[in-house]
Amino acid sequence: MTFSNERTLLNQLSMGDEKAFSKLYDLYQPSLHRFVYKFLKSPDLSNDICQEIFMKIWEDRQTIQEVNSFRSYLFTITKNHTFNTLKRAAVEDRVKADVVKSYRVSKNDTEDVLLTKEYQQFLQSVLDTLSPQSRNVFALCRQQGKSYDEAAQLLGISSSAIKKHMVKSMQTIKFAVERDIGIAFSLFIEVLAQSGDFMPIIEL
After folding, report:
1. Span 126-151, mean pLDDT?
2. 125: left (phi over 0), alpha (psi -120 to 50) or beta
């Protein structure tokens, strides 16, 4: 669609034209749904968010003419709404369960890889704040799948010391994830577990 055609639809939308609204919905809903789905991995939640976004567009239609780039505006408010949903997932069990369940059955497409890479980089930034020994313990136990006894033998320290390092590291990562990313820690782990960066908790 050309800029002039889109502008015409926006002008019509601002005057309450439902046909113009439907055309904009048909034009942007598929790409919007893909955008939301790459974060939530839940078809139902993604559909809900898309519906809520377009409801907001309709409610704010009288000011839509002030928007210079409708596409940028649309994806910006969608991103914000999606991240707010992820923040809710940290405290609402139903939303969290939907997101985590959907992650388990999702395929690792290009968008998944990009999101996982972002989480990997964030994890590394948090690990860099830990002591060298804590980083070594974490790498052995959570990234290489070693038991506490195996890690203790390799590092020449006691199993109880390994556990103390792991508890402190996991608490630090959990706090950083929920504070800086704003998502449930279980979702963060679920994403990285699919890439092999987080081994299942055997001991803690």
Report:
1. 90
2. alpha
